[in-house]
Specification:
single chain, 69 residues, mainly beta, four-stranded antiparallel sheet, three-stranded antiparallel sheet, globular
């Protein structure tokens, strides 16, 4: 993903930074994301405009990321 700040419809935030987008920070709001639970692990580097999370308890999920200006 390109450098910038991104948000899901339900409030999780991803910030991609660094000279070539090599750093990221994920603030995963598992309380608000559909079908997510406290055991979910979000992917550190989102792919193809989606925040993806995996979980052995609830099965995981994904959400579209929209760039915030």
């Amino acid at each position: 993903m390109k450098v910038g700040k991104y948000k899901t419809k339900h409030g999780s935030i991803v910030i991609v930074s660094g000279e070539h987008g090599g750093k990221s920070r994920v603030d995963f709001d598992w309380l608000e994301e559909p079908n997510a639970c406290c055991d979910c692990e979000p992917e550190v580097y989102p792919e193809d405009g989606y925040l993806i999370w995996s979980c052995d308890v609830c099965g995981g999920g994904s959400a579209i990321l929209t760039k915030i200006e």
